Amino acid sequence: MKNKERLLFVMLAGVVTLWGLNVVMVKYLTMFPPMYVAAIRMTIAGVFLAPILLQYRKSLRIGWANWLLAAGVGATSIALHQITLATGVQYTSAGNASLILGLNPLATALLAMVLLGEGMSWRKAWGIAIGFAGVLIVVISQHGGIHVNGWGDAIMFFSMLMYVAGGLLIRKLSLRGVPVLLITVLSQWFGVLFLWIAALMVQPASYYIGLDVTPFQWLVILTSAVLSTAVGSVGWNYGIRQLGASRTAVFLNGMPLASLLFAALFLGEQLLLVHLLALLMIVGGVYLGSRSQLKPNSAPGVVPSDITTKA
């Protein structure tokens, strides 16, 4: 293995570890209103991503149709995803949340079949069934059935679907020749706009300004926004360009595991055998489902929507 490739592997492992930790950080911040947590995190991330626009300043004339698609990405995979993520973790554990978010690639394959008419092989269908069964086992084992106490898991499931919906729009934009990093920045700022509109509809600006945030809480917010969202997005897209889509996608399987371990370490959540069983089922399901859609020599420039960025 070349030194450059080894460094890329370390970088990608670090990115998915940060994404796993991000769920725990958002769970820690549940003492604040979900709208505030989502809006302030995404605004900070947007500021750090903004310099990328300089690189693509000659590519901003993408046409109104593509601008609307970018706004759609911002509304779904940024605004709605972040609001429901910050809300969902208030009512469920970070471990459960991470397992549900781990269904992203499988849900993408399922919705791509329904909405885009993509093919569905038996291998992919089995992968989807196994992955979803793993999450269902966790939800039912902890709640004794799907009832009011399981609303947090239901909200997280919707959060995951919103991210997937944005991913399908990203796929459409990338096929139209819009660079993925440019899509990332544009959708980020559309998402920030929508988040603050929603936040100010719930509470006036004076309410958010008056919130008492400790230095440590600011550190958590900054770590989540800058390292997980901004740096993580750039690092992930760089990895895809260098290694190709299929090799990079393998690292996604580490995100739920990282979340489970960090939740047990920092939040004192119990790491149960049922979590490990669900993790194995989700990883196995993603492996089965992705093998049929990602070729071994996927071109670095071709970026499937389910492995672009994680907010």
TrEMBL record:
Occurrences of domain EamA (ranges): 11-139, 151-288
Keyword hit for Cell cycle: no
Major location (coarse): membrane
SUPFAM superfamilies: Multidrug resistance efflux transporter EmrE
Record InterPro entries: AA-Vitamin_Transporters (IPR050638), EamA_dom (IPR000620), EmrE-like (IPR037185)
UniProt keyword Transmembrane, yes or no: yes
Transmembrane segments: 7-29, 35-54, 66-85, 97-116, 125-144, 150-170, 177-198, 218-238, 250-267, 273-290
Keywords attached to this entry: Cell membrane, Membrane, Transmembrane, Transmembrane helix
Pfam families (alphabetical): EamA
Superkingdom per UniProt: Bacteria
Listed GO CC annotations: plasma membrane
Membrane topology: Multi-pass membrane protein
Localisation per UniProt entry: Cell membrane
PANTHER family, alphabetized: INNER MEMBRANE TRANSPORTER, S-ADENOSYLMETHIONINE_S-ADENOSYLHOMOCYSTEINE TRANSPORTER
Family membership: Belongs to the EamA transporter family.
The name this protein goes by in its record: DMT family transporter
Organism per entry: Brevibacillus nitrificans
